[in-house]
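Cross-posted from the bioinformatics board.
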Amino acid sequence: MTLDSRTPSGPIEQAWDKTRFDMKLVNPANKRKHTVIVVGSGLAGASAAATLGELGYHIKCFCFQDSPRRAHSIAAQGGINAAKNYQNDGDSVYRLFYDTVKGGDFRAREANVYRLAQISVNIIDQCVAQGVPFAREYGGTLTNRSFGGAQVSRTFYARGQTGQQLLLGAYQALERQVQAGTVAMYPRTEMLDLIVIDGNARGIVTRNLITGEIDTYIADAVILASGGYGNVYYLSTNAKGSNVTASWRAHKRGAYFANPCYTQIHPTCIPVSGDYQSKLTLMSESLRNDGRIWVPQKKGDKRSPNQIPEAERDYYLERRYPSFGNLVPRDVASRNAKAVCDEGRGVGETALGVYLDFAAAIKRLGENTIRERYGNLFDMYQRITDEDPYKVPMRIYPAIHYTMGGLWVDYHLQSTIPGLFVLGEANFSDHGANRLGASALMQGLSDGYFVIPYTIGNYLASNKLAKADASHEEARNAVADVQQMTQKLLSIKGKRTVDSFHRELGKIVWDECGMSRTAQGLEKAIGQIRALREEYWQNVNVPGSGDDLNQSLEKAGRVADFFELGELMCVDALHRNESCGGHFREEYQTPDGEAQRDDENFSYVAAWKYRGLHAPEELHKEPLVFNYVHPSQRSYK
Amino acid sequence: MKLTLKIWRQKGPKDRGAFVDYAVDNVNPEMSMLECLDVLNETLIERGEEPVAFEHDCREGICGSCGFMINGVAHGPQRATTVCQLTMRHFKDGQELVIEPWRAAAFPQIKDLVVDRRAFDRIIATGGYISVSTGNAPDGNVIPVGKEIADRAMDAAACIGCGACVAACPNASAALFTGAKISHLSVLPQGVPERDHRAVNMVAQMNAESFGGCTSIGECTAVCPKEIPLEVIAIMNRDYIRGSWKKRDDVVKTIAPVTDWSSGRG
């Protein structure tokens, strides 16, 4: 199958307008005859379900949490970008487009990114109208801050809780449709398989997490908005429940998985404190504006930071990158932290941490100014670590927090299975090999509020689907598969817990397919993952039964999928013989240690086709063409 | 650290629950309350017992999934902190912690520490929004909103819907939760057109659920991890009285509370 991205021809500025005009419409009276399933209720899922409900479609929306408001979009702190140019500082749709393509290290599809930048302005308007309490100036206008290396101030925010407020806006719009009767909400219901009939996505198989019932839901189209797969690493900044299961089961039914090795590591997280650690907590990137990052020059220096004299400290970012210093991009900062820790110069109990020191800033600006700028963050740090960052340097270490890879989609956000659409972090589309700060919220809402309502209409209007119900053979097969897997997991009753496997898997993937990768390491990891997966299916212990709330069983199914995904990530990372964005292959770096792309051979999207558990996945390539932003080498020296 | 956890165990909604004592020996003061339960659960699974079911997701204090009573206090002893961010250094070696779920008729028990909080979603569904369909919005700067107003709306909007307010209230009232949403929307100019309807409908739904009434005790705000101020209840009452007077001939629409989870609902 050739990958047709359905990218419109002609000037990029008119591409989305032209596409909208060319698309077929569903007559208002016919909309209510169509049922659409939405899996996930984060920014992308809730905004899609609400908007499609408003248009009159009949929507069934599913989430595994107890309420749609819990989706992990809620944890986003920083903000949402939009090319409003309210600050009159030179921003434009074109500049946001340019920054995003370049920030993605030239591995994103230009037309998608341009559309995202265009729609960004509508998102802000919509959210303001919904009552999202964005930060304001005294005069009553919206305020902005700069973020993530952009040279303009285009980030809108609601304190440090922008994701929460945007999600509540979408959730409330969704609940309004629940009340109106257009959306039926199914909380605590997890999608476990996709039903494909005559080549089209026609429904899902779910498990009711309270009663254990396995059910079938049939529809005219299925939308996946089920988030990213950062939890493959076990320790990440993702919510504990975030998982790849919906995407992965769709992948096994024929949806190609694109660029799985593109994962983003955030440099400023609170370091791991012990084996019991269940997740990592992000500290806003803004701290690097005033904090200085350093480690001791000597290996294994156990003195407390205040006893290490200036001359024996290594401010390694300032040393290596004199012009950007502590403000190098996320991927560069993360890799350097790992390098100094690998040398044995890490700090703290575990020696996996570096100092982020505010002493110089406090001396220069005074404690009050620092408190005004970062008070909330310092409090949060103190609450978790019991250390006072005004007196002792913070300890930070990088952690996984976003995945750019995901199910392959075309310009219409349709996967390789007709009728299966993928939105938000679950798709691969807009961020290339590296996502810029404040762009994830923008993409989720763009896909849900403004793209899918058009493209799904075109799909429904262009395709005549045969009647189908739960008794269809494909539906019954999918149900049988789910039941079999559930029974299998419950019947092993081995010696190890699901978490112990997940932790071990996470460590393999983190060590070999995390911040930096080598061919040798990846090959080793593939072998280790396979061996561990085999042990998993022999030796995992899932207590309880499948007939009631069983959190171990839920985890067990998700971890089973993480094993398969983890292997594919390594395969993808191994095949991509270049470094780009979050994917750093040690063999491919410039003489001074920076990422070296190979545009001649790797300027494409790698989309993988599943061919069974024991057959290697098949690589399909979507070539990337850059007509507007010309690829260049990023330099921060 | 060694702790004794006295945890409420209940197999299902219709089963009788009871406290069970668990000795946890390897408690690190750095770990969170939920990580302490993780450690206990790993041991239980290895012993062939069922782990304690508890609700959690983001573990950053923002999703609102987690929450239970520790020694009678919702979310435990530290102010403005959910149990996922409560570290064990707040407890003493050898201490006994009594851990039980939110207790409220409107939050039916599901299993162990997990309860059903769908009543909150129904309260939002009856009016906790501004009715503006996608595509209808004017430019974001058309309606100026003063900084003080925006900040006040944000203070109320910070609610995470965890349910601690209900659990702490002797009447199991949802006034703080409902008031927070009513206040967030009614202080903003965008929310004014629907202000009366919103208050009347949301309060009617709150009453249709099994929540008790507010008698201004203030336990809710004391345990609230986001420190939602008590004034949101005053704003709710004001809007409700105003709305009921002006809209007294309107038909109020409520949603029938659902407590079962069998499929085919919705």
